[in-house]
Amino acid sequence: MVSMNRRTPREVIFDRLNDVFMLVICFVTMYPIWYVLVNSLNDGNDAMRGGIYWWPRVFSFDSYLAVFANDGIMLAMGVTVAKTVVGTVVHVLFTAMVAYAFSRKELIGRRAYMMLGTVTLFFSGGLIPSYLLIRDLGLLDSFWVYIIPAMFSFFDLIVFQAFFREIPDGLEEAAKLDGANDFKIFRSVILPVSMPVVATIALFHGVYQWNDYFTGMIYINQSELQPIQTYLYRVVAQSSSNQMMAATSGNIAKSVSSQSIKLATMVITSLPIVIIYPFLQKYFVKGFMIGSIKG
């Protein structure tokens, strides 16, 4: 009796070609990261000769020591951590509250609000009107320029709303019988049972806040308020790496270059989110699945 699970030669060849194709994609994706890491761990002056592709030729941590010796990068890292934590908490709570109101059928004008919000997903005023608005609000050169404009996202509202609609009405009715108002229901009933979507949106927005360099580049002129990604932009695109090398102590300065400092800075600024992301990747999958299946 022939097994029903026996695969044909054509299927085997197809699977092997898929394996090769995926290995090529993984290599093309990962090799630039590996190249940056290897060259950042090599002696800067030696790396200028080229020919380093797979592992350091002259292993050295001096480029990293030169980066950490710079007070600017540590200050920028602190700004990034602060805006990521504060911005994520504020965004999640505010967007969740608005989404909870939108999920109520008794909300007057809900259809009109949804239509207006949907338009904003496809059209925006552009950079100049946004800059003028930020200026008139007094948010230029302010830490709150990272927080207030990013408090709300209509796309995240849709994700929250899809989840809230699946919560049984009986939970709210029981809370109302106990005398709870809408705010207490949201705080004590809705949020505790919505932790999967809360974690998903927190991850979405946390990654955005960490990687955002454009806000600091456009709205911030004070160096002490620039986040790490804007600082990285300055190092890569401008002459900051030369200034950092000039400020490095004598022994370390002999084994670093402007290029090695740029690469080390890129690794340092990317490492935290690279380490965290694999552990939280499952929430991205859940986020895309929320609302797609009624259970």
From TrEMBL:
Top-level taxon: Bacteria
Keywords carried by this UniProt record: Cell membrane, Membrane, Transmembrane, Transmembrane helix, Transport
UniProt subcellular location: Cell membrane
Bilayer-spanning residue ranges: 20-38, 73-100, 112-131, 143-164, 185-208, 261-280
Main location: membrane
Coiled-coil portions: none
Domain ABC transmembrane type-1: 77-280
Keyword Transmembrane helix in record: yes
Topology versus the membrane: Multi-pass membrane protein
Pfam families: BPD_transp_1
Family recorded in the similarity comment: Belongs to the binding-protein-dependent transport system permease family.
Name used for this protein in its record: Carbohydrate ABC transporter permease
Provenance organism: Paenibacillus ehimensis
